[in-house]
Design goal:
globular, 4-stranded antiparallel sheet, single chain
Length: 258
């Protein structure tokens, strides 16, 4: 018998609001296992080359560390990572939320180092992606440290998944993070315990404050969409930095045509 992770009310909440909290998607001992892997990436013991970048470039003044560390495709560097509990449970939950044809599109790490104080600006993930006809897409955002308002937990605008993609622009220079007009007054902060996660739709407006604490705020993200749309993305030459991690483009104009 297949294990079911979500209640009907959680699925309905996700459809209405564009996000949902899933507590304890991994166990405490698994959190420690993932932290060890994560730290090998942060320390450079696992060398990822151009797949490591500063998502907060020109938005903060951190010295000796990225303002926001982004590492794309960690599963390409750790054999068997996709078969470990987080990827497998997140995939199962994504199918409960959006359909049995969902598959992993990409994964990434986003870390906010201590006292880096750099926001991740308001945006909708769809603005980063090529425009495909089937809009089902969900990102699972796993907290490996307790995520709080003070260290940069996620904020969501409930119901924004049901509206259009807002006009986006580069937040601080071409090639960096994208942003759009939105504010905390529209949103809700979602604090998480380590080992818990959120799922959010590709169109859900979200953001996080900078990390003002003395600890890391490590997040592990896996994205899912229909396998047929992943194949279409690849045919269009879009693989979320797998072949060229330095390429980040504004896709806003494509959505205006949708």
């Amino acid at each position: 018998m297949n294990t079911r992770f979500l209640t009907d009310s959680q699925i309905e909440f996700y459809r209405e609001n564009g996000y949902v909290v899933v507590e304890d998607i991994i166990k405490p001992e698994e959190v420690e296992q993932y932290k060890n892997i994560y730290n090998d990436f942060l320390s450079g013991q696992i060398d990822v080359g151009a797949k490591r970048s500063d998502l907060g470039a020109n938005m903060g003044d951190s010295k000796g560390v990225e303002n926001i560390t982004q590492i794309m495709w960690p599963s390409e560097f750790v054999e068997g990572l996709v078969n470990m509990p987080f990827h497998q449970r997140a995939l199962a939950i994504s199918k409960e939320l959006m359909g049995a044809d969902l598959a992993m599109d990409f994964d990434m790490l986003i870390n906010k180092a201590p006292v880096t104080n750099t926001i991740t600006p308001w945006h909708q993930d769809e603005a980063y992606w090529v425009n495909v006809p089937d809009k089902r897409a969900t990102s699972c955002w796993l907290a490996l440290d307790d995520a709080t308002v003070e260290n940069g937990c996620m904020w969501f605008v409930p119901g924004s998944n049901q509206n259009a993609v807002r006009p986006h622009r580069f937040a601080a220079g071409n090639g960096g993070a994208l942003t759009c007009d939105a504010s905390e007054e529209e949103g809700l902060a979602v604090e998480l315990k380590a080992g818990s996660c959120t799922f959010h739709h590709g169109r859900t407006l979200h953001y996080s404050r900078g990390n003002a604490t003395s600890g890391h705020r490590r997040a592990f993200i896996v994205n899912f969409r229909p396998a047929e749309m992943i194949q279409l993305e690849r045919e269009l030459g879009f693989d979320h930095g797998k072949s060229d991690a330095s390429k980040r483009e504004l896709r806003n104009e494509e959505f205006k045509k949708a």
